[in-house]
Amino acid sequence: MSGFRGVSVAAALLGGVLLLTGCTGSSDSAAATATSPSPKASASAEVSADVSASAGASGSAPPSASSSGSAAPRPSSRSTTPKATGGTRQSPASVPGCRNLAAGGEVKAAVTRAYQRGFPRLVHIAPAPGRFFYGQCGTVRYAAAQFQPTQGATEGELVSLQDEGSAMKYFRASSGSDWSYVATDGFPASEGGCRAIPQIPRALATAWRNCRIAR
């Protein structure tokens, strides 16, 4: 009986040892399982590391336009139009006025020939004394004359110089050109005088005192 109890105690002790050993192995296996990395997690970590390394090696930021120096310069906001300088102000060119001039024999002869070109039958004529006006406006010369017969005038000339033929005649000559007959006064003479003649500038008619006083 005593022998059987000894065997039972020994068997119980052996079972307890085995039980403790199994628990210890299970704990170690669980600890090893907990501490060992998962294959999937390791693979993901390696892929992420590779991607980060590749990005760090080749994925540098593109150079900016300002650092490359190839960008076109922006236009300046300031105007490049030169400003007018405050120099001396020039006055406009003076407009030539009209003036009364003294008529010499050459001018009177040229005006008489201009009238004779329009009336070839009037050969023996000359400006009446005190009835000749001469002036200039700019580069244009003007004349007004009343004609009378001279010695040797024919009856036909005398008749032509009566009435309307004795009215004031008006002439014009541009610079470098001959005199031309442009107008005649009425008969009897117009009360408006030479101011009523459109071909004569008003300023010159004023200088001629409206052809009331002759030179």
Describe the structure.
The protein has 6 helices and 5 strands. It is 39% helix and 17% strand. By secondary structure, the protein is α+β, with helices and mostly antiparallel strands. The chain has a domain of 114 residues. It is globular and about 45 Å long. The N terminus is likely disordered. 16% of the residues are buried. It has a 5-stranded antiparallel sheet. It starts with a helix and ends in an 8-residue tail after the last helix.
Element pattern in H and E? HHHEHEEHEEH
Label the overall shape. Answer: globular
* Helix coverage percent: 25-40%
The pLDDT mean sits at 70
As residue ranges, the low-confidence spans are 1-7, 17-71, 75-95
N-to-C CA distance: 190 Å
**Main sheet record:** 5 strands, antiparallel
Number of strands: 5
Strand content: 15-25%
Task: Please state how the strands of the largest beta sheet are arranged side by side.
Answer: 1-2-3-4-5
- Alpha-beta classification: alpha+beta
Helix count equals 6
Radius of gyration: 65 Å
